Amino acid sequence: MNKKLLFLHTNYRVTTTLWVVVMLVLSACTSSIESEATINQPRDSMAVMKSYDVTTLVSDSGITRYRVHAKEWLVFDKVKNPCWDFPYGIHLEQFDKNYHVYSEVTSKKAVYYVNAEEWVLSDSVVAVNRDGEIFETDELIIIQDKDLIYTNKAVKITQAERIITGVGMRANHRLTRYTIEKTQGIITIDEDETPSDSIVYE
Q1: Share of residues in the chain with pLDDT > 90 (%)
Q2: pTM above 0.90, yes or no
Q3: Is 4 domain-assigned?
Q4: 22 assigned to some structural domain
């Protein structure tokens, strides 16, 4: 398998086989699944599948990488940019090789772009790494086939002893190494510090 999610068909065609795969993945974790296909609707503008109250595991290259929780999941396979849409937000947990959760992300909206293998989380995004550091921003992009998470928006990072605010951030998937591109302020418990243009943490 070449960096594709477990239940993605190569061309993402709606075939009997694909539906069986999707149903097997979701049957134990979804309270409701319905097809949006109707005779009168154009296939290039509608969701081929709508699921409610989803909790499912997502594999990448045969390894379980994520656990996804969502109130609603829409699958668009014939639009110009095939995607999964989570209009009411998402809770995404990322696993290490021992299936321990090393980071969690929640947002009020989310879209996964199938061909680009890219998650775009938006609106009140909050991420937490294994050290308990909290990252808050309005948009967070996860590049699945690279060890990269980034935002060009304002970001607030709450650490054990200080709070850092800035604009723009680049990080690894674990959120343990990150660069704040434009630091705007640092508040510590004991004293204020003068911000520099950028801060790198490893």
Answers
A1: 48
A2: no
A3: no
A4: yes
